[in-house]
Design a protein that fits this description.
By secondary structure, the protein is an alpha/beta fold. It has two domains: 92 residues, Enolase-like, domain 1; 212 residues, Enolase-like C-terminal domain (TIM Barrel). The protein contains twelve helices and twelve strands. It starts with a helix and ends with a helix.
Length: 325
């Protein structure tokens, strides 16, 4: 059952979290939090998303705050470090914020940068992690097939664990996967799962070796688990630059997966100067459990009046879209 809008608004808090480094073109992250019978949840679709897409994120938040979640298979989730598109010289500083992490996801193909920048950044990560570390890259669908093939050939010397969403379409991913098979670099699908009308199409087309899943964009933990089961591919649970509340939902999803073969992208709380609660990597892992935001931090991190009103309006519009569902 869809809770009344008044029930969401009664506890709604809008926060703005300052970041240590620019990421996805922003230096702050906004989110709306509310509390339901089962605990706190997060509604934080990126500001450029339209209401139809954002409504799925709201459905996930309501599900987490109002409903029982699947039983966990594990109490702790190993996570990766996340390296934004920084200069190579900044890599040691970034990785130092992720103590104990044996895996790093490196952003590549950033607008305004070149392949040489990506190579230097990935090389710096490999040097810090050493030969036993795991290095994965994320291009956020920015490359053409030819550009991706050329980039993967250049980056192969760093022993990549996988390449996440190197191209935009399922057809492009399938072509690239066939081209680079000899390099033994697995292809992971992110946007082709979470932003697709048919999230299973990428698996059906043989276009990926694994899938990246995120609780909010997919409509909740149960829906994400169904997608993984239907895809029949290994899964990596990741965040959408969530606050600690959203990360706890991601951790619950990771804990509920029957198999978890890869470190998860749930350590991004380390990218914030301050968060609503403490949920950052310790010894390379985070606990799987609900988070209660700190009241003083909610006050300190409260968004400006105009941004609060904008988020409450967005919540109202998305709630109206969920009613017919």
């Amino acid at each position: 059952m869809l809770p009344a809008l008044e029930d969401l608004l009664a506890t709604a808090r809008v926060v703005t979290l300052p970041m240590t480094t620019r990421f996805r073109g922003v230096t702050t992250r906004e989110a709306l939090l509310f509390e339901g019978p089962k605990g706190w949840a997060e509604f934080s679709p990126f500001v450029e998303y339209d209401d139809a897409e954002a409504a799925t994120w709201l459905a996930a938040a309501i599900d987490y705050a109002w409903n029982e979640q699947p039983a966990p298979h594990r109490a702790s989730i190993r996570v990766n470090a996340t390296v934004p598109a920084v200069d190579a010289a900044d890599v040691p500083r970034i990785l130092a914020r992720f103590p104990g992490c044996r895996t790093a996801k490196v952003k590549v193909a950033d607008p305004g940068q070149h392949l040489a920048d990506d190579i230097a950044r990935v090389r710096a990560v490999r040097e810090v992690l050493g030969p036993e570390g795991r290095v994965r890259i994320d291009a956020n669908a920015a490359w053409t097939v030819d550009e991706a093939e050329r980039a993967l050939h250049a980056l192969a010397e760093f022993d990549l664990e996988y390449a996440e969403q190197p191209c935009a379409t399922v057809a492009e991913l399938a072509e690239l996967r066939a081209r680079v098979k000899y390099m033994d670099i697995p292809i992971a699908a992110d946007e082709s799962v979470r932003k697709a009308e048919d999230p299973i199409a990428v698996a059906r087309a043989g276009a990926a070796d694994l899938v990246i899943i995120k609780a909010q964009p997919l409509g909740g933990i149960g829906r994400a688990l169904d997608i993984v089961a239907e895809a029949g591919l290994p899964a990596v649970v990741s965040s959408a630059l969530d606050t600690a509340v959203g990360l706890s939902q991601g951790a619950a999803l990771a804990a509920a997966l029957p198999a978890l073969d890869f470190d998860c992208g749930l350590g991004t709380g380390a990218l914030f100067i301050e968060d609503v609660a403490d949920l950052v990597p310790l010894d390379g892992a985070i606990p799987a459990g609900r988070v209660i935001p700190d009241a003083a931090r909610l006050d300190r991190l409260a968004a400006s009046d105009d941004r609060r009103d904008a988020w409450l309006d967005r919540l109202t519009r998305c709630h109206a879209l969920l009613a017919p569902r």
